[in-house]
Amino acid sequence: MKKDNSEANLKTLFTLILLIVLLVVGTGACTSQLGSKALPDSWSEDVNLTNNTGSSKYPSAAIGEGVIHLVWQDNRNGEYEIYYKGSMDNGGTWAQQRLTYSGNSVYPSVAVNGSNVHVVWQDDRDGCNCIYYMRSTDYGEKWGDGKKLYSSYQSSEHPRIAVNGSNLYVVWQEYIYYDFYNVYFVFSCNYFLFYIVIYFHTFTTQKI
Fold it and tell me: Which residues pair with 121 in a beta bridge?
């Protein structure tokens, strides 16, 4: 009987030790996971990237293959135009370019996949607010011409762009009538642009 009690006690002790080990290991793993998702404790000093006499606002940033890409609207030369800065050394130095030269260009959004940098914005060069698109295929060194993605008799405003692999996705708000808007969506696959109007369910394609 004593032998049975001793074996039972040993089994209980072994079980307790095993549970303690599992708890310690599990707690450590959880702490490590929580630490990796915690907010950063420190930040670099802030840097003024647009120190000029104009108003610079509505920035959008993206990073790909170690290159930081930044766009914003700026009225240093009168009307608002879209400007771009790129940094290949984690923000140590920046190269700047002006992307637009006509109309009032506002609310830019940038996305990147590899060496391809994609920018959309709202532009009124044709007399009404339209959505325009521009692309660089060499990390922002050189840019193609701006291309109109969408226009209507109303007002296309506040575009946003996202990228997934080689596919591009753009959304914006479309003015319909007094204080009433619809959300429009387009996507690009193999350089064809597919229009899907969320509210009216229309569908067209355009090569870009």
Answer: 132
- Give the list of residues 6+ apart from residue 24 with CB closer than 8 angstroms, or none: none
Tokens of 87: 């940094």
Overall size of the chain counted in residues: 208
Q: Does domain 56-207 have CATH number 2.120.10.10?
A: yes
Residue 128: count other Cβ atoms within 10 Å of its Cβ.
Answer: 14
pTM of the model: 0.75
Are 99 and 134 within 8 A, CB to CB? yes
What is the model's pLDDT at position 103? 87
Please give the structure tokens belonging to residue 4.
Answer: 């049975």
Q: Is the dihedral of CA 182, 101, 118, 206 positive or negative?
A: positive
| Cα-based distances in Å from 78 to 21, 73, 163 | 68, 12, 32
Encode pLDDT of 53-94 as tens digits: 899 999 999 999 999 999 999 999 999 999 999 999 999 999
Domains in the chain: boundaries: 56-207
Q: What is the mean pLDDT of residues 28-57?
A: 76
Strands of the sheet with 147-150, listed across from one edge: 105-113, 116-123, 130-136, 147-150
Structure tokens given for 46: 């802030």
- 119 in Cβ contact with 109 (< 8 Å): yes
